[in-house]
Amino acid sequence: MFGDLFEEDDSSVSHNQYGKGKKLKTKAVEPPPPREFTNLSGIRNQGGTCYLNSLLQTLHFTPEFREALFSLGPEELGSLEDKDKPDAKVRIIPLELQRLFAQLLLLDQEAASTADLTDSFGWTSNEEMRQHDVQELNRILFSALETSLVGTSGHDLINRLYHGTIVNQIVCKECKNVSEKQEDFLDLTVAVKNVSGLEDALWNMYVEEEIFDSDNLYHCGTCDRLVKAAKEENSKPDVNLKDLQNEEEIDDPLMILKTILLQEESNLIPVDQLGQKLLKKIGISWNKKYRKQYGPLRKFLQLHSQTFLLSSDESTVRLLKNSTLQAEPDFQRNDQQIFKTLPSESPGFNGRTSCPHWFDINDSKVQPIKEKDIQQQFQGKESAYMLFYRKSQLQRPPEARGNPRYRVPRHLLSEMDAANIELQTKRAECDSTENNFELHLHLGPHYHFFNGALHPVGSQTESVWDLTFDKRKTLGDLRQSIFQLLEFWEGDMVLSVAKLLPAGLHVYQTLDGDSLTLSEIELADGEDIFVWNGVEVGGIQIPAGRDCEPLLLNVLHLATSSEGGKCQQLIEFPHVFPSNAEVGTVFTSLAIPGGVVLINNTESIGEKNWTTIPKVDLKKTFREQGLRNGSSILIRDSNHDNSLLAKQEKWITSMNEIDWLQVKNLCELESEEEQVRISATVNTVVFDIRIKAIQELKLMKELAENSCLRPIDRNGKLLCPVPDNYTLKEAGLKMGSSLGLCPGRAPTSSQLFLFFAVGSDVQPGTEMEIIVEETLSVRDCLKIMLEKSGLLGDAWHLRKMDWCYEAGEPLCDEDATLKELTICSGDTLLLIEGKLPPLGFLTVPIWWYQPQHPSGHWKSHQDRRNCTPSQGGIWRAISAQGAPGDVHAEVSLHYLGDIDISEDATLMELKSQAMTLPSFSEFVIPSPAFLRAWTVESKRPSRLLRADQQQLKEYKLGRRTEICLEPLQKEENLGPQDVLLRTQMRLPGERAYALPMNMVWDAARGWTAGSLRQRVADFYSLPVEKIEIAKYFPEKFEWLPISSWNQQITKRKKKKKQDNLQGAPYHLKDGDTIGVKNLLAEDDDDFSTVTDDIGKEKQKQLALGKRKSQEALRVQSSHVFSGAETPARPRGPEASLSIHVGSFR
């Protein structure tokens, strides 16, 4: 399914300098929307699971698969309620698949979730964010289902529906002997380029004859010599694919015999061979299956003389030409994105009628699409990657037509009915708040007009008020409500739509028609309304309307020296002009006598981007010249040249097309040249390049048999050797690339070239290399690598380096071969110290975390605050403790040790086991309930683990998770919507904060800025309009103010995105630090501290030092590898896909 796969729907949160509202609007969490008019349900994308959604929708729209799965009841599969019981035999994957299909059929929601299904796969949150190949997923999912259904009536479900056979035949042209080989398959790969349809593609790939003649003769076993022969593969879907057979065809011997004869050349076959092929095709002989009802085979053929022609001696039989199979088109197309539903097959909701139609299913969205649009879509670069076909002759029973409840198990019907009732109740509750929207009232008496726009005067909270209002009420009702709110107002009140622009607030049209509803006048949610007398503000008449919209432009001109002359310095400053003003007014506004005006509408100030405005065009307006906010204007004397502009930009000429490769001598042999350029094309074979390089480098001819070419990446690292028989295109080598001529042969097709290193902190270029057989087991590979590294002992394991150059998941199955684990040439394996825990167990490093709190919290036996412990397992920066303003920057983690614990254990059991560690004896903790658990990322607490009775596997921790424990003064029981924040009150008159305090915020009614501000105000017993809050980003030493409403105003008639602190730019989560400022004591915009200034300065110095070291490294490496770029961590290969299945044998 195509679409914007990586587009995130983050709510935009404002940094508005004005908006601090006095009233708040909090929205309840909305239930999922109902199905749209198509009556079909989509599937939500978990971040990177579009390929999974495509496959699941395809299987869901295959009635035979869906209903075969539904036919398996709880007595065979078990119950999901028992999945956590130790002795229960619950087949979770088919159960979750059943439940998902039932939701797609019956649940009245726009899109279903696959979270429970991917949990049953054993996937972590990281795997749900990765893209994978849908064909690979299909094979792995089918394999997982087969394993899960062992011992049930559905053990052959996949084999029965999707299994097929390819028959490879080689026919000797001399003796007509047939050599035959059969291969099983679940899917077929075909080339679709330059073919008219599927039948042509199948014919080209599997049916068309290949002739062995001339230099390519075939050795016939019967003739015992080389002869001419013909090879063909037969996989005709309506003949050989078992998934296209049904019981009626098997029960009809006439259809089976006709099908077999259609496969034969000239439709002729000996009668004895016909019986053998019948046995091979249906798995049972004629005598056992048909003799009792139809008599002997020859008699049956004689009785059907209108179809079959027996020879005079009844030894051979052929099919008459007028009796070939009359079949409808064999396939109905169902691909990743497009589905066609028929009235008998459409799983519509609540039995509503539907008509045949194509639908475009793009994750959550389902929309109808016309056939011509499908054809147009697949005429371009995009092409269907994986197609599912279903035999058109398969008929649905009458009771299944328009009945989505058909064959759905009773327990799932009850569950879906209850869920629909609950959804209806929640939607009814939510409907009462749907008609409310928010308006931002800008009060005219608190604004003044200068520099072309309106700006607030004095306090921000007095300038802008937020009002929540019912959009079904009239404009007159709104005016009356504002009159009641503004008791100080005197005279007429005019309401005008305004908009915040870079230059300031600008007034547009006035709202008229007091009898019209706010919906009828198309007032948008989050609209800015300017409240004024309609004439002037502060004694100044206000220009209104789009024509005079203020533009904030960047003005550049030569500075004037103290003597009055022009100095050679180009200065830039912002200035506001009305968009309907003439461009020539720029001279008057800036008090410049005259000159030449150049304009630039791009971000670059290079010479090529400037356009000179002729004098005659100076009377045109700024808008007519195409200027917009952020455009630049350059004013210079008429006799001035463009030399200053030329200095601003480097002119780059295009390079000629490259048609060569650079080969460096890395064989440790002296030669006249260190490197040579070899001319090549994309179709040049690597072997030819290697031999030519040896000749031009004038090296020994013996290297031709014992050398290889290895690509050199931009860091100077040698990559995996390239096979000699590859072309440059097949090897993925680009023209102009650098290759190293190295000693040693490239690995064969059955060997793997691997990099390996010790530990997880690996620097590029320091890895060791090894060539091993792909059939080698993980255990044997580990032994070889340990031996080559000079390491002893058996307390080691292997991990595959992931795409971000970090240690990935461990290779747990040490008996599996490298090929089975999809280890490929060029992969990097890491030798990690420590033996892997048993299957189902985790080895979790435990850290002690004690942030600074007010007195009264738990302490260790020894006050460790002013000393550095002798143990090395501590992450922290030592500073003068207790100093205000320093606490938010300090994180102290003390390593306690590792624990081995089952994934089925609860969080409480993990805390209890951690308390038994020897290092824990230093601390006095009454019970595990007085501990708070966090995951550790980047040496900081990251995710809060709540619900002590929840099992560890439900947290999706993964095998690399580390946990830190924080002491509590009292027990806590956080709900699922509770957010734990650390608040700090700013000390008046100082750039510092008091010690942090834990605050619990109930975000059940929405993650809005207004809700958080209200909670902070209540926590500190202050009026909400008298506080300012900001979130602290310790890694940047920055504070981001959290305003009470959103500055981002969308276009009219479009709904504003909901203000959500979980989205950008705040990304608020448990454990974040919130700074609080009391406006009664201090009224400025600064949240920063002295520590922040020091931290930013250190970051600046580190960045500068890093830049210098990179520059030095680049200069140094250029002597070895010319043209090498700045070293960077290379992107590793994509992680492999797997589904974890329990054993049911």
Automatic annotation (TrEMBL):
Any Pfam family: UBL_USP40
Domain USP: residue ranges: 41-392
What ranges does the record list as Acidic residues composition bias? 1-11
Tell me the PROSITE patterns matching this sequence. Answer: USP_1, USP_3
Write down the InterPro entries for this protein, in alphabetical order.
Papain-like_cys_pep_sf, Peptidase_C19, Peptidase_C19_UCH, UBL_USP40, USP, USP_CS
Could you tell me one molecular function GO term of this UniProt entry? hydrolase activity
Location of the region described as Disordered in the Swiss-Prot/TrEMBL record: 1-42, 1101-1145
- The source's domain of life comes to Eukaryota
- This protein is called Ubiquitin carboxyl-terminal hydrolase 40 isoform X4
Gene name of the record = USP40
